[in-house]
User: What shape does this take?
Amino acid sequence: MLVQISGLFSAQEAAQMLARLQAADWVDGRATAGYESAKVKHNRQLPEQHPLAQELGALILQRLSANNLFMSAALPRRIYPPLFNRYESGETFGLHVDNAIRPIAATGERVRTDLSATLFLAEPDSYDGGELVVEDTYGARQVKLPAGHMVLYPGTSLHRVNPVTRGARVSAFFWMQSLVREDAQRTLLLELDVAIQRLVQDTPDHPSVLQLTGIYHNLLRRWSEV
Assistant: This one.
């Protein structure tokens, strides 16, 4: 399941974040890659403990906590602090799968990477290439979103970032452990939640609202890991 979170930040907010990131000191992106991923990863990123990374990461998490679509789609239990990367001059990240478990250095906690997220911070017309390509049951799907928009996709997916041939692709990326491990189950819960919300809007007093809400919570109770 790929889920687009539109307008998590406005274009102006994203531009302000981008301007601050442009002036930062970037390091080799392989610093956070696993053994296999490091072979195909050619980009730069902001050090995890960089004050700007921590400041903007906290802002992203705050914004996500108030986003209903994100909360419904991800059902987050634990979120890895957002990181920031940069691609330009032919830089790319070849086909790979994310590490299943990622330790959070500052806390010692570990996050199972059920979901991956990319928040685009540069406008798509400011660079060529740089598409996120996610392979799923329907084939390869390319994602290149406006600044301030985010995509969620299963951490189990094979994915890559196409080479950037003009300009710079700057984004935030991170992972989360969901209350519901399986992508298929999360997809059903999201579809059911969206259907309930539409029914509430169209016919708020319909007796099926209560019944469907009960089904949603009983499924969540059955599938969740707390």
Remarks:
- The first helix runs from residue 11 to 22.
